Protein 1
Amino acid sequence: METSAEKDHSTASVRRDVWFESGGVRCAAWLYVPTAEGGPRPLVVMAHGLGAVREWRLDAFAERFAAQGWMVLVFDYRYLGASEGSPRQLLDIGDQLDDWRAALDYGRSLPEVDPDRIAVWGTSFGGGHVLRVAGEDHGVAAVVAQCPFTDGPASLISRLRSSPLSTVGLIIAAVLDVFGSVFGAKPVLAPVVGVWWMPAFLVSPTAIAEASKLIPAGTRLSSRTARALARFPALGKGLSPTVVTGGQPFRPGDTAVGRDTIWGVMTGSDGGGDSANAIAARLALRLPLYRPGKDIRKITAATLLCLCDDDRAAPARTTARLAVGQDHVQVNEYDGDHFDIYVGDLFERAVADQIQFLAAQFTAAAGR
């Protein structure tokens, strides 16, 4: 369903706000449609990683793809961002995989789309999801997995090395969250990124600062989060200047996040792009069991893995090993950490490589 449209002259495309249904819940999405005549066209279906929303730099990639004359569908998972679903900030692996399947069904239903030229593009946790989905859906023409989460045990070991003590805290929070869910309690929220003492999913001295580079300019923090940064200045060290720690106050309960948390609630300058540095802690008990990298061998489509050598959240060495001997897989390696590939020179290199790869696969699919 189309709800509104915004013309982007620089990419010669129109970005429409649309939605599709997944599991009885409406998932919000952007649909980029080139303004030039022609079609049917290739489609790139995109979604983000752990607890992130599409405003966190997915538009930068989507605009480059749309500039090639391709259609692009960028969606938020249920329970997050502009999508519906309750409880908010819940990340359920099975539900997110179903959201990917529903997004593909929606894309194939569009008359402007060539169903034989559809690619899936996922990053971080979403990078793992596209490997799982493409392993079962052989109608996909190409796969791009950027800094993909491929192996739960490897990521758990990396997390333990970052801070064993706060890993225990995260597990305790997860157990309490599961226990509370039995009685209908709100999720116990754990930070997505944090420093060594925080029960976060991703911990490093610079994780908060690096992740903040993805946040759109003018994004405001809730008063509670701003006070926490003022009380503990080390947390805000290196914070991107795009983040506004003061400004007009807002009520976190009125945002799409639905509640406040000291870990960070944010709203965009235009009142959209609501997000939080927090998800339901119960996921920590499932992550070690999720190994989508094992599905690489089941994929029949050409697959591009974009790996960052210093990635602690999704260890590149493990992913590279999983790709050994798979003739359909191309591995591109970049110097950087998990969040570096979204911005600056590394973004420019990665998106150029992805465009070259996708263009080749769409051309090959058109000739079949």
Protein 2
Amino acid sequence: MTPLSCDGTATRSQRWSDAMRKEKEHTHTEHVEFPDVHDHVTQFPNTWARYRALIREPVAEFLGVCMLIIFGAGVDCQVVLSTNPNVASSPKGSYLSISFGWAIGTAIGVWVSGGISGGHINPAVTLALATYRNFPWKKVPIYIISQVLGGIMGAALVYWDYFHAIDIYEGGPGVRTLKTASLFSTYALDYMTNVSCFFSEFLCTAILMIVVFAMTDKRNCPPPSGLNPLLLFILILGIGACLGMETAYAINPARDLGPRLLTAMVGYGKAVFTYRHQYWLWCPIMAPILGGLAGGAFYDAFLFTGQESIFNKPNAAARQRHLHAASEQRPHAPSGAEAV
């Protein structure tokens, strides 16, 4: 009990003493950890991290194309080889299965690489982005080399997986002809003329590039975050189901050249290159590249308003007044952490 002064009130010193006592009774000590002023976050915690930073984007492109081929060539092998009763008791799929397989491969390939390299997984896309959207030209060679190597590796994995089924389908161990080479790279139907083959690949790749440019345009109708691979799945499914029969819709030089190189290495020989007077060069490589450039040019010339495109670079009068178009492209086209 607090003693009172003569007038019945506690003295000042007594009130102060009571307050200090109550504060001690109701106060508990907490251990608070303060960050070490010498603790820093680094991008390179070890030597391997430094090397990884140098190869991360090319490896992402390699892995993306590898995934594309594993699913795409894999579904080709399953559907075609299973038509032989000695390989499977019944056919395992149809042409629609092939369309779905390549669409899934595209989506998976972009998903695993998009946030790191942009998920091009296609030299035609890389060249179009470098031409129209400021993608660094210095990265183009290593991107394309990585994409082709990814195609070789993906085809090799599928070939090793279906090696025995291919032997049975071909009629004996080690027999290799174009009828199974077409499971890995593209060959046109017999009635198709050279001009028709070129036009088919040109058209399909132009459509592909228009959609890629549209889905990275902030002022058009870009998909919600994380859904770029899904949109590409729908696009590739549509191209395959509607336009893919005549030339097997390469629409990607790495998707054709990588597996074609693999078939030449494992016993198919030079026939994969001499088919239709160097068909491998002018149809599944040159036509997609030119089609991609044409599709990108059409979109940027008539629809895109961002400063990234060469079609929207300021002229002399605008430069004199320090005027330029707004930035309208979503980062990391066609995919990526900021874009998907």
